[in-house]
Amino acid sequence: MASGFKATYVDTDTFTLVGDQTDEFVVNRRVKAYCGDDGYKYGTIESSSYTSPSTTVNLYSTNDDLTSNLVSVKYGEQSSGNTGTVPIHSHNGAEGSGGGILGYVNVKGYGAVGDGVTDDTVALQSAFTAGDRIFFPKGTYLTSGDHAVTDSNVTLFSDNAIIKISDSGSPTYILSISGDNFSTEGSLILDGNRANSTTMTYGLLMSACDNHRVENVHIKNVPAIPLRVSDVENSDFRNLSLD
User: Fold this and answer.
1) How many whole angstroms separate alpha carbon 218 and alpha carbon 190?
2) d(CA 212, CA 203)
């Protein structure tokens, strides 16, 4: 499964990313690029620049050649010249939460911003449908629509992220699960924004699916029902808080 930031091939040394990713893809930072059937390619960033709506990243020409099968990229540690490593862990803090956790789809790679101002509805749903391991870096992700996880074997990893209904949002639910074997890792907050959005019925809706592990999820400010579980078996719910 591809992970990290969704990337578009330009040439053997260049790719583009959705949104402004220049704080992440900085000069002399190592990059691991997944090129589908052509495997992984490694390089070091020579330059990056943002011109709406995308960031263009150029690698040193002495690195591995990218191919037209490019799918996604992850960044690693900064290093001098063309050496260095690509770690498997998440970056955060001033660096902006990094390329994500190995094997996970990073929602920021699909254009999510997580600044509590930008509407991330489309980006979040794109990430939900793109992979079975989804990473939310720390931030507040505003959404105005429903988000459904229909595939089985999906894991959502959250670094204390908040998914919040926008003031103009009028969804039926924040998150709906209908695929088997759904699980969460880390800590996640689902915020219904009750003070400004009053049409929502459910915070988390789980229906006709089995074998889940949901833990460390806080569901709050939902106008009606924070959690509804219907026709669900063999599931483990731990450290859930509702208010």
Assistant:
1) 6
2) 17
Determine the 3-state secondary structure of 207 from DSSP: strand
- pTM (whole model) above 0.85: no
Strand, coil or helix: 122: helix
pLDDT in tens, 78-111: 443 333 444 433 343 323 334 455 567 788 888 8
CB atoms closer than 10 angstroms to residue 37: 6
Per-residue CA distances from 116 to 136, 163, 222 (Å): 14, 9, 18
| Three-class DSSP category at 213 | strand
Per-residue b or e along 91-100, where b marks 16 or more CB atoms closer than 10 Å to that residue's CB: beeeebbbbb
Q: How far apart (Å, rounded) are the C-alpha atoms in residues 55 and 41? A: 19
Distance CA 79, CA 232 (A): 49
Q: Report residue 57 as tokens.
A: 């990243």
CB 7 within 8 A of CB 72: yes
Q: Do 179 and 202 form a contact (C-beta atoms < 8 A)?
A: no
